[in-house]
Amino acid sequence: MTETVVDLSWEGPTAVVTMADTVGRNTFSPELSGGLVAAVEAAAAEPRTRVVLVEGLPELFCAGGRQAELLDFAKGRGSFDEDDFFRIFLRCPLPVVAAVQGHAIGGGLVMALYADLLVLSERSIYTANFMRYGFTPGMGATHVLPAKLGALLGQEMLYTGRNYRGAELRRRGAPPSIVAHSEVPRTARELASTVAQAPRGSLELLKKETAAPLAERTESAIARETEMHRVSFHLPEVHERISTSYGGAR
């Protein structure tokens, strides 16, 4: 029997989607990515839903790509952006609030940034660590990080691939709400509850309007990133770095 790694529940008009793959550490397994898409789509299809709240484990929101998958890409098997599951928050017809209490690593951070509203933790690590392994960013990261976190800060995160605590991002002027670790769930729920006061029809109209520019710009960014991957993933040192340095938020 397959373990459920993504849970869907409701708190009034707020649909709560929880990624809880403790064994797989909330990496992009088929079970997690497929379960996430199914849960968000089911939440949006339910008439009582007005807002979707997405959360992960208390210490780990999402760890992004799996080592085996990245090694396959380095060997020319598959592509980072073949499956567009990571833009499910953007495609959702209702507003999505991401309660990013735990670490968000690589693709896990990029996926979180596709949410309409975010709440981060002061102490957790947020990293776009693609270049740490030597390959160029994907999933629309080259657009979405500067767009959501600020142009200079976003570019710095892309180039350095280093870890940033939420408290540092707040000092650097990152726009998302960044609160004490224990306050992330409550703050996110209060935000979702405020959003849910509006009529569903109005929320759908506003989401369509605000999501359209990001969808268009990340579509073209992903196409360019895929071309960069054709070169960067095949550099000799990339396979070695993935093999020896993979480890998430170290």
UniProtKB/TrEMBL annotation:
InterPro entries membership: ClpP/crotonase-like_dom_sf, Enoyl-CoA_hyd/isom_CS, Enoyl-CoA_hydra/iso
CDD domains: crotonase-like (cd06558)
NCBIfam families: PRK07110.1
Stated family: Belongs to the enoyl-CoA hydratase/isomerase family.
Protein name (database record): Polyketide synthase
Organism listed in the record: Salinactinospora qingdaonensis
